[in-house]
Amino acid sequence: MFGLFSRLQRGAKNLVKQQIIQHHRRSGTVxxxxxxxxxGEQMPGATLEPEExxxxxxxxxxxxxxxxxxxxxxxxxxDIEAIRLMVPVxxxxxxxxxxxxxxxxxEVADEALDGRPANKRGVSLFCGTSPLHLRxxxxxxxxxxxxxxxxxxxxALRRFDIVAFSPEDATRTExxxxxxxxxxxxxxxxxxxxxxxxxxxMTPIKVQQLIRRLQDEVPNxxxxxxxxxxxxxxxxxxxxxxxxxxxxxxxxxxxxNGIGERAGNTAxxxxxxxxxxxxxxxxxxxxxxxxxxxxxxxxxxxxxGIPLPVNQPVGGANIYATExxxxxxxxxxxxxxxxxxxxxxxxxxxxxxxxxxxxGRKALAQRLESLNLPCSDEETAKVLEQIKTLPKGxxxxxxxxxxxxxxxx
Length: 409
Prior knowledge:
Layout: H1 2-27, E1 31-34, H2 50-63, E2 67-71, H3 77-86, E3 94-100, H4 103-112, E4 121-128, H5 131-138, H6 142-156, E5 162-168, H7 175-188, E6 192-197, H8 204-217, E7 225-230, H9 237-246, E8 251-254, H10 268-277, H11 279-282, H12 293-304, E9 321-322, H13 325-333, E10 352-353, H14 361-370, H15 377-388, H16 398-408
Parallel strand pairs: 1-2, 1-8, 2-3, 3-4, 4-5, 5-6, 6-7, 7-8, 9-10
Helix pairs in contact: 2-3, 2-12, 6-7, 7-8, 8-9, 9-10, 15-16
């Protein structure tokens, strides 16, 4: 009698999970899953203390991400501590822990996430599936690896309702075997299956071809959410992610500022802004608070110690600044003349019209007026000529401008 009751309970739970999965799929909304705190932190030099991870996690919650890859608890006591700090505080996102297909990893994740509601905690399992990983890393046959994967998923389901599985090095796995891996992982109960481009070798067309093949060869794929995780070794992570969205990916994973192993990961802020500007192609980025992006990009850079390139999309210092006179003139008349979006969309700073060799009179006149240093057109022209002859590297700040105006007088 007890066995029958347990089976009925499992059946009811599975029905609810399928209803949730189908709801997400039907909505067409792409779910953003952040891995800054795990894959991002793996970037050499980007180590975060548990309290710093909690600060970023709370900022990601304000941003509105659906889930957080909170860490790899079996790898470090610090990861366990960070997750334990998040459990009672970070309420809305699903917190997931990375695990190998090893029972003890799953047990440690269960302990780290103890006290978290069942619908707000999960595990992300991974196991290599490419010929290279099977032969040189795992030294297992395809049959052995399939059994490890399905056994691990079933073991995880005893402790977690949300169990994701990703075949590591999926994009170098033989497509027929990759499809078999997905079929058996979903049949074993995985609620999400991921497509990780572990070494960042894909191109958008190859992404399109692979996803379409999987959709054809994995008939039970609609029973799970389909997630993508691209690395940026060819500088194509964002482009590959956008193609995957067009091909029906339900979940996109990435990091703030694109930090991570080697050349990094998909930059989530870039994906979100591309979707915002081109909703007819990709849909909209759900319920993200876009104006949280710029301050979050800055803060992640500060806490990790990984500097942002000045030309980094969304978060870079030069994105909302220009020195070119023609652009400055246009921006003064209408900011949209030389901007793809207004900085306030992402919580960015006011436009900066930098004065230098390439500047024009309009930008200089505006700056002088703001400093209460009114000049005639002729006087402004003379100051501008002085600016254009300054040595390389000299920054034209307010004090220098005052000196130039006084010297002109």
